[in-house]
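Re: beginner question about structure tokens

> Can someone show what the tokenized structure looks like for a real chain? I only ever see the sequence side.

Sure, here's an example I had lying around. Input first:
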Amino acid sequence: MTHFTVLSLPSFQDSRGSLSVLDGALPFPIVRSYWIYGAEGQTRGGHRHQFTRQALVAVNGEVVVYMNDGITSENITLKHPSQCLLVEPKDWHTMTFGAGAVLLVMSSHAYDRSEYIDTPYE
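And the corresponding structure tokens:
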């Protein structure tokens, strides 16, 4: 069990393949979405936010997300498209990408570099 919130998205499978549904699953409206790919072996992130909330889904491959909320730190491995990790503003996070990994990120706010906090917890 994890200290951080990992949602199990509703998923359906039949002979035609699998489908995971995000509708109504997030506790915030999606204002910005983007995906990171071609980052095999790289670590990205290394910040927290003042007010932006995020939801992370590894739509392909495996991504290890290091999370630290100032009290608890933990590595969470996203390896199935039905897993969705919620990243709260207080959560310092880095993402390390496995082979062929594609990470979908959905944010509660538009990009604003001034609300990033680049100093990790001690």
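Each token stands for a local structural state, so reading them left to right follows the chain. The CA atoms of residues 72 and 100 lie 29 Å apart.
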